[in-house]
């Protein structure tokens, strides 16, 4: 099946972001994509100073548009993420819609991005956001898909749980920056893919040199052998790739690490 990653140029005008995103979703569908994914924070600039201003309920304006375009195009739409307000708290949330427009999954970013790299970048999502507390998996006729958002990708245990749950594709909307992007963006994706013998896709906003937070871009798809099979540059674009589940099955048969784990010696388990 064909997967499309929309590396969107995100502006400060929410209505423009929504219109542009929906237009590119339609374009991807017209080119045969069955699963289409948007980037992290696709409807607003990324930054703790913006989350409260742009936050919405789910369902709300942005997710209603996503539901409508998913139904119109009869596709599975992974709605990147938006700042979500619920019960007085803010979350970084990814909503997924099916071909009938129904909400299939809602993933709240589990690991908040609180880092301090002296002389390079300091950022603290927890100043405004609350963490999610659950794993998020949804079914398609093609395969089972696991969701994470950006910093979630650094936590190998989360990907292992998804693998145990039968996922064959992991999708991470993310916005790595100009420090962490060149260092770890591709490396982490290849690590998660080869460790769990599955496909990993990441969807970044396009790079905007004028933004207060500059995203690395380079939306990427990695196969279960750890090979990069599709990759964007820094500009706005749509990345297409065909996901071959026969290849996944062959790799798991050739190197059967999933059945050779020493569960008598170690294990990763989901607590709730």
Chain-wise SSE layout:
Elements: E1 2-7, H1 14-30, E2 35-37, H2 48-54, H3 61-73, E3 76-78, E4 82-86, E5 89-97, E6 103-108, E7 114-117, E8 121-124, E9 137-139, E10 144-147, H4 156-164, E11 167-173, H5 180-196, E12 199-203, E13 220-222, E14 228-231, E15 237-242, H6 245-254, H7 257-260
Parallel strand pairs: 1-2, 2-3, 10-11, 11-12
Antiparallel strand pairs: 1-15, 3-5, 4-5, 5-6, 7-8, 9-10, 12-13, 13-14
Helix pairs in contact: 1-3
Overview features:
single chain, 272 residues, alpha/beta, Nitrilase/N-carbamoyl-D-aminoacid amidohydrolase, 6-stranded mixed beta sheet, 15 strands, 28% helix, 26% strand, Nit1/2_C-N_Hydrolase
Write up what this structure looks like.
The protein has a single domain (2-255), classed as Carbon-nitrogen hydrolase (Nitrilase/N-carbamoyl-D-aminoacid amidohydrolase). The chain has helices spanning 14-30, 48-54, 61-73, 156-164, 180-196, 245-254, 257-260; strands at 2-7, 35-37, 76-78, 82-86, 89-97, 103-108, 114-117, 121-124, 137-139, 144-147, 167-173, 199-203, 220-222, 228-231, 237-242. Strands 1, 2, 3, 4, 5, 6 and 15 form a seven-stranded mixed sheet that branches. The chain contains seven helices and 15 strands. It starts with a strand and ends in a 12-residue tail after the last helix. The model has no long low-confidence stretch (mean pLDDT 96). It is of the alpha/beta class. Belongs to the carbon-nitrogen hydrolase superfamily. NIT1/NIT2 family.
Could you provide a short overview of the structure?
With 272 residues, the chain is of the alpha/beta class. The protein has helices spanning 14-30, 48-54, 61-73, 156-164, 180-196, 245-254, 257-260; strands at residues 2-7, 35-37, 76-78, 82-86, 89-97, 103-108, 114-117, 121-124, 137-139, 144-147, 167-173, 199-203, 220-222, 228-231, 237-242. The chain has one domain (2-255): Nitrilase/N-carbamoyl-D-aminoacid amidohydrolase.
């Amino acid at each position: 099946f064909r997967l499309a990653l929309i590396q969107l140029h995100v502006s400060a005008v929410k209505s423009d972001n929504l219109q542009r995103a929906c237009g590119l979703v339609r374009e991807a569908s017209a080119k045969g994509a069955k699963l289409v994914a948007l980037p992290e924070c696709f409807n607003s600039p990324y930054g703790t100073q913006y989350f409260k201003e742009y936050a919405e309920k789910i369902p709300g304006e942005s997710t209603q548009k996503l539901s409508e375009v998913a139904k119109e195009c009869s596709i599975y739409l992974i709605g990147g993420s938006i700042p979500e307000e619920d019960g007085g708290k803010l979350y970084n949330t990814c909503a997924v819609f099916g071909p009938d427009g129904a909400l299939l999954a809602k993933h709240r970013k589990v690991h908040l991005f609180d880092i301090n790299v002296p002389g390079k970048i300091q950022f603290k999502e927890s100043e405004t956001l609350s963490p999610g507390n659950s794993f998020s998996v949804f079914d398609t006729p093609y395969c089972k898909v696991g969701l994470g958002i950006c910093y979630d990708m650094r936590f190998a245990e989360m990907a292992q749980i998804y693998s145990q749950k039968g996922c064959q594709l992991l999708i991470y909307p993310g916005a790595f920056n100009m420090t962490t992007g060149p260092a770890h963006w591709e490396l982490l994706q290849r690590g998660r893919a080869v460790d769990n013998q599955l496909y990993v896709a990441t969807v970044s906003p396009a790079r905007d040199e004028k933004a207060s937070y500059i995203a690395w871009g380079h939306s990427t798809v990695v196969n279960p052998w750890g090979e990069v099979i599709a990759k964007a540059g820094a500009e706005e674009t749509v990345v297409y790739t065909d996901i071959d589940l026969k290849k996944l099955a062959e790799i798991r048969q050739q190197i059967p690490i999933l059945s050779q784990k020493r569960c008598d010696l170690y294990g990763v388990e989901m607590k709730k």
